[in-house]
Amino acid sequence: MFESAELGQEINKTDYEKEVPELREALLDVQHDLRESGKFQVIILIGGVDGAGKSETVKILNEWMDPRFIETNAMGAATEEELAHPPMWRFWRALPPRGKIGIFFGSWYTEPIVNMVYGTIKSRDLDRAMEGVIRFERMFLDEGALILKFWLHLSKDVQKKRLEKLEQNPETRWRVTETEWTHFKLYDKFRKISERALMHTSTPDAPWIIVEGTDPRYRYLTIGKEILSALRRRLDGGEQSAVPKPAPALPPVDEKFQLKSLDFSQNMTKKEYDKELEKYQRKLNLLVRSRKFRKISAILVFEGSDAAGKGGAVRRVTGALDPRSYRIIPIAAPTEEEKLHPYLWRFWRNIPRNGNFTIFDRSWYGRLLVERVEGFCSPADWMRAYGEINDFEEQLARSGGVVIKFWLSITKDEQLKRFREREVTGFKRFKITEEDWRNRKRWNKYELAIGEMIDRTSTDTAPWTVVEANNKYYARIKILKEICERIEAAM
Predict the structure, then answer these.
(1) Bridge pairing between strands 101-105 and 146-153
(2) pLDDT over 70 (residue 204)
(3) Is 309 within a domain?
(4) Looking at the structure, do residues 231 and 301 belong to the same domain, yes or no?
(5) 149 and 187 share a domain?
(6) 378 part of a folded domain
(7) Above 90 in pLDDT, residue 258?
(8) What's the pLDDT at 427?
(9) Could you tell me if residue 367 is inside a domain?
(10) pLDDT > 70? residue 475
(11) Is residue 390 domain-shared with residue 265, that is, in the same domain?
(12) Would you say the C-alpha torsion 410, 474, 472, 456 has a positive or negative sign?
């Protein structure tokens, strides 16, 4: 795979100086057009062997284009804060918005490759990591992003000479450390494993471009021209990759839905409730204060029918916790900033570090519910969201997150009763809006969407707990008990 990048390709100084001004002007023009269109973001990965000119290439790109609209990310070793979150968290936070270019000097490929070389992971772990990378990039491609991946290569002999030259120069000596020489000793292993990773992840919509890094002029012109060509093709109406469309579920022919089979007859008296509430709030408090809890995080998702009692349930959960140990994230319509990023971006930003407790009052499932039913997104968007959400939650679980999801369900008659109570009760009147009444008219559509959502996204790592919520006391205790059991099991 790397043989074509060991041919000694180079550009003479005269030709280089002739081509650069025109290329820089064209890059600035296409960058302006990207900014004006605001239709997609550009993600540029610069990877490769030590000494191949990665940092110099990033510097040149910032010189040739307007650096105000380029977000350059040098992704080195993860910080303590980053290690306390899922591995992809730090990359999600660094993604550029639509209309901008994000350059990643070091990326989501670096750690799996290095870990494989040093033997801290096995072949199957590398393959699994690369499959995850493909899904990760596929998500952005489906959102319209342009991903350009460059791998700067040097032969073993050339790399040795490059490192020795850098080391001999007092001005560049600092760039060659023991790490670079250790990597050089493992050159053959790095080459083999890098080739495997690149072959696995060079997809039609995000292929790897191998660039010989020996001659800087050749390197700069090759990468600059490729960026210009890819951007111009997209902006001038080049075809976007086709989005895979999973088959939607059809309504059952016998009109039976999971929510229609629930038993809403469960009851609990106020006396029983007070006793159970004290028991499970005390238990939850002790669990979260345990030293073992510092190794995990709790991510609670509350979804449900309008007026099903989500707010009351959340208050009973937080009533057991120290206010310093939890956050409540209320999810409403996305802001203008959030609309400039891929759908899951705003949720990744709020994922807690280990030892913390985060409650989402509504969540990423809005795409499968209100956005689907109200037509706020295309069928292709919400149909592919099933897989994206399952992958998202699996990443959280693999990193120690306990994902606990509740769907609070009430009958249609009970909802009507609660709506009318809210309209006549002064301190509850703010809870009822025209939108609630409008949603009620779409009860059957929501019922189908909810049933399909629960069926497709209830997994072993993040199962749904459906709560029969006609009796609020019963619902709150069921929720607290489930939270305690899941956290206790995880610890």
Answers:
(1) unpaired
(2) yes
(3) yes
(4) no
(5) yes
(6) yes
(7) no
(8) 66
(9) yes
(10) yes
(11) yes
(12) negative
Question: pTM surpassing 0.85?
Answer: yes
**Is it the case that residue 77 has pLDDT exceeding 90?**
no
Last residue of one domain, picked from the residues 175, 203, 235: 235
**Structural domains in the chain (count):** 2
Dig out the tokens for 271 from the structure.
Answer: 């006396």
